[in-house]
Amino acid sequence: MQWKQLPLGPLQTNGYVLFDDAKHAVIFDPGGDAEKLQAFLDDEGLTPQAVLLTHAHFDHIGAVDAVRKTYNVPVYLHEDEAGWLPEPSKNGSSLFIGQSITAKEADSFITTDGLLDIDPFSFKVLLTPGHSPGSVSFYHEKTATVFAGDTLFQEGIGRTDLPGGDHQQLLDSIHHQLLELPEETTVAPGHGPTTTIGVEMDRNPFLNGLS
């Protein structure tokens, strides 16, 4: 199995496509540029099985409906952000870019930590609120990757000054969920370059008292 990082949408948010040798795929955070995303899927001959959202901010959702309609796949989101996809004031698009970015409501809501099986993929769902109330991270053991959204970045952490953000909750999520993963785990963040859990344990100033 392997994955591809695709900068998408108005903020060039990192979307990801995880796929196997049989050309099954899962899409994380399709933030926009539906044509670019579809071109990659078609060029690789991939068949999406689902869309997984780390959270429902506007820059992570812009191509959700296009993907859902084209490939007839379910969209997963944490229940604490139910109602955010269709509402610009909740997903932040009306506030930050002065236009409405919306999607239809999610098809399936995540409620708790645990295993999520989307054949042939299996993920460990980690509840990582703080950047937003329903932020989740998806750990894929076979590729040793955690798709972390805007929770943890290379030498940074997610902002917490948006509605529902909580700085201490974010730090708790990182320490008790993400930093418990193997140190060699690749962190695939919502913005910027990838990193690893071990590197962030050593170098992230927000986590090790260097700030």
Question: If you had to describe this structure to a student in words, what would you say it looks like?
Answer:
The chain is of the alpha/beta class and 211 residues long. It has one domain (2-203): 4-Layer Sandwich (Metallo-beta-lactamase, Chain A). It is 21% helix and 30% strand. The longest helix has 11 residues, at 34-44. It starts with a strand and ends in an 8-residue tail after the last helix. The model has no long low-confidence stretch (mean pLDDT 95). This is Glyoxylase-like metal-dependent hydrolase (Beta-lactamase superfamily II). Residues 12-191 form the Metallo-beta-lactamase domain. Residues 187-211 are annotated as: Disordered. Its cofactor is Zn(2+).
